[in-house]
Amino acid sequence: MKKLIANREIDVNEEGYLLDFKQWDREICECIAGECNVVMTEKHWEVIAYLQDKHHKEEPLSIRGIKRSGVINIKEFYNLFPGGPLKKSTLIAGIPKPKSCI
Amino acid sequence: MSGTKVKKMLFILSKGTIENAYAAFVMANGARMEGIEAEIFFTFFGLEAIQKKKLEHMHVATVGNPAMHIPTMLGGLPGVEALATKMMKKEMEKLDMPPIGEFLEILSDSGCKLWGCKLAIDMFHLEQEDLIEELDGILTIGDFYNRADQEGTHLLFI
Fold this sequence. Notes:
The complex is a heterodimer.
Chain A: E1 2-5, E2 8-11, H1 26-35, H2 42-56, H3 63-68, H4 74-80, H5 85-93
Antiparallel strand pairs in A: 1-2
Chain B: E1 8-13, H1 18-33, E2 37-42, H2 72-75, H3 80-94, H4 100-109, E3 113-117, H5 118-123, E4 137-139, H6 141-146, E5 153-157
Parallel strand pairs in B: 1-2, 1-5, 2-3, 3-4
Helix pairs in contact in B: 1-4
């Protein structure tokens, strides 16, 4: 389906996750973050870059991976993306929602 | 974004086998990851999971467990339980499931509250220093019920 984000038509799935990463940019990112009540800071951008890098290397994301990332610890991660951190951060990063239970 | 009516999950872990501990941990972590509050109350044999010296030595039960698909008498032989546990841990590691101690750290950092049961701790003569640092406190069951303080709270006994 199409969704109007930052006055552009973007392809998303029924949960709002981007289907084509090429459509993602900082403007789109900030719009989605706003919908999640997240105001992007330097730290947010750093985490988003880490998640995208992992996704592009086809490495699965997990909360344990966040703990080991060296980019952010779990407490900060929950603070930056309240209400389901991995779900929200991947939505904002324009990558698919992780399928893992852990 | 999410349509769930579950707002808070309260778990009581009463068993000391590794599969039951993981059941509680995976569900509690899964709740936090969905933005749902989670708390675990460790009682009776579930206390094995929060004792510093015991938590990394939890085993899967090979006796009286039909799902193991080995004869009960074999399951009781020395070393069988340890071997089955080792095999299970290897499979878990492949799926990036953390060991018990690390899982407790993750849960605590994720905002999941961890409570010890006062009655069971007294019964097993445990002291504060026997228990993990991440423990948020020692409660009676009444105190734990009082944690169910909002609509959409669910309580699960494992």
